[in-house]
Amino acid sequence: MDTQALLFNSSVAEIFSKTWYEGKIMPCDREVLMWAFLSDEIEEEEYAAIDRMLYAVKRGWIVIVNQ
Q1: pLDDT grade, residue 3 (50/70/90)?
Q2: 12-63 tens-digit pLDDT
Q3: pTM of the model
Q4: 25 DSSP β-pair partners
Q5: Residue-wise over 20-43: b if at least 16 C-beta within 10 A, else e?
Q6: Comparing C-alpha atoms, which of 37, 35, 31 is closest to residue 66?
Q7: Which residues are bridge partners to 63 per DSSP?
Q8: Which residues pair with 64 in a beta bridge?
Q9: What span, in angstroms and rounded, lies between the C-alpha atoms of 17 and 27?
Q10: Long-range contacts (CB closer than 8 Å, 24 or more residues apart) made by 11-18
């Protein structure tokens, strides 16, 4: 497995858990999620986690911080 793929996998999981705990997505986390989503190297589980976070934002459960 590629090193970049490992970075995205661990980053998406960490961002997912941190986001649900804090209830917000920080700008740096959004960038990592964007790059992970646009790469072809993440697995279906990471896509599902990003999709869940987007759904939570849509429902108002998670806030996007613009600092």
Answers
A1: very low
A2: 889 999 999 999 999 988 888 888 888 877 888 888 998 999 999 999 999 9
A3: 0.76
A4: 64
A5: eeeeebbeebeebbeebeeeeebe
A6: 31
A7: 24
A8: 25
A9: 16
A10: 11/36, 12/36, 12/42, 12/46, 12/49, 12/50, 13/46, 13/49, 15/53, 16/49, 16/52, 16/53
Here the tokens at position 40 are: 């072809």
User: How far does CA 21 lie from the centroid of its chain?
Assistant: 13
The token pair that represents 64 in the structure block: 């996007």
pLDDT score for 59:
96
Tokens of 67: 């600092």
